[in-house]
Amino acid sequence: MSCDNLHQQFLETFIQQEGLNDIFRRNATDYFNAYAHRLAQIAEASSRPIIVGLNGAQGSGKSTLSQYLSQMMPMQLGVDCHVLSVDDFYLSKAKRKRLAASVHPLLGIRGVPGTHDVPRLLDALAGFIDPGIQSVTVPIFDKLKDDRTKNVQRIQKSARPTVILFEGWCVGVPAQHQLALSVPASSFEFSNDNNGVWRSYVNERLGGDYVDVFKLLDRLSMLKPPCFEAVYDWRVDQEMRLVARRREDSSDTSIRGMSVRQVGEFVENFRRLTCHAIGVLPDLADETWELQADRLVLKERLRS
Predict the structure, then answer these.
(1) What one-character-per-residue DSSP string does 269-292 give?
(2) Which residues contact 291 (CB under 8 A, 6 or more apart)?
(3) Fewest CB atoms less than 10 Å from the CB: which of 23, 219, 250, 266?
(4) How many C-beta neighbours within 10 Å does residue 63 have?
(5) Cβ 39 vs Cβ 163: under 8 Å
(6) Nearest in space to 204 (alpha carbons), one of 91, 113, 90
């Protein structure tokens, strides 16, 4: 069987297992398979694992793409590919509660810069780069319980060329200029952060220790939404799929996630920086895939 046929067979199996549609098939065939080959070439030329940032708004498909690459690259290209999600490095609910009490109530909600365990994230990324470290341990966050679990994932390094995909909605996003913080970005901010304490704290963190994280990236890629309004629909779909999968895995039909209204309130926490990323990140990313509302890639932009 030819390499092209093997690639296609793997893609069809992945689509079936993940319950995906023709849109992912077209994106993978037209763009993502070539992306995998580019990353493989860079990894093969590197003396250490390369760290690739994958930015995408909530529900944009970055986790699905990461999962696809983590399975496809070892099997088809002979390159190890491990996924780290910024979501797994959220602070525990108890720590966010203390942060909410001491700084601003909105910091009790997971998501924005300032609600992650950045020192632990830095240790994990540095562990992949350090040749003296053979395995890296990362935490696991349960989104339905909104808390960090006691379980961890242990990633074993190998001698093969390796890609570390570091995916997250705020990965690679720079801090905003101070002037941009002077006016609320939405009615949500007007009602909940009219004095700017929350957004100023978030921006200060983004321009502080998160910069140290993003400096470790060898490459940055972006799944760019057409607008913030599309993110709401994507996040509703993501919540439904998350609950359905958890019910299927546990055979527990009583499992519940956020309601449509709760999802709408939740995504407002991400509006400011998501819109900021849409505006500035394409000029910083090595590749940007411009998505339609149905997540089909409309255009690929490569930085020369």
Answers:
(1) GGHHHHHHHHHHGGGT-SEEEEE-
(2) 60, 61, 223, 224, 225, 226, 230, 297, 298
(3) 250
(4) 18
(5) yes
(6) 113
Residues paired with residue 224 on neighbouring β-strands, in sequence order: 290
Residue among 153, 168, 165 at smallest CA distance from 42: 165
pLDDT value, residue 304: 73
Query: Residue 273: which residues within 8 A CB-CB, separation 6 or more?
Result: 112, 113, 169, 170, 173, 176, 202, 206
Helix, coil or strand: residue 16: helix
Helix axes 3-18, 62-72, angle to 10 degrees: 140
The 10s digit of each residue's pLDDT in 32-54 is: 999 999 999 999 999 999 999 99
The domains of the chain, with CATH numbers, are: 3-170+177-295 (3.40.50.300)
Q: Give 239's contacts (C-beta < 8 A, 6+ positions apart).
A: 257, 258, 263
pLDDT per residue over 250-280, tens digit each? 766 666 666 777 777 888 889 999 999 999 9
Q: Which two tokens stand for residue 36?
A: 């995998």
- DSSP run (H or E) holding 243: helix 228-250
Q: Is the CB of residue 90 less than 8 Å from the CB of residue 83?
A: no
Query: Which structure tokens are listed for 44?
Result: 């093969």
> How many helices, marked H, and strands, marked E, lie in the chain?
12, 8
Pairing of strands 147-156, 287-291: unpaired
d(CA 33, CA 284): 22
- Both tokens assigned to 148: 């960090």
- Close Cβ partners of 33 (under 8 Å, ≥ 6 residues apart): 7, 11, 72
DSSP assignment of 55-81 equals EE-TTSSHHHHHHHHHHHIIIIIS-EE
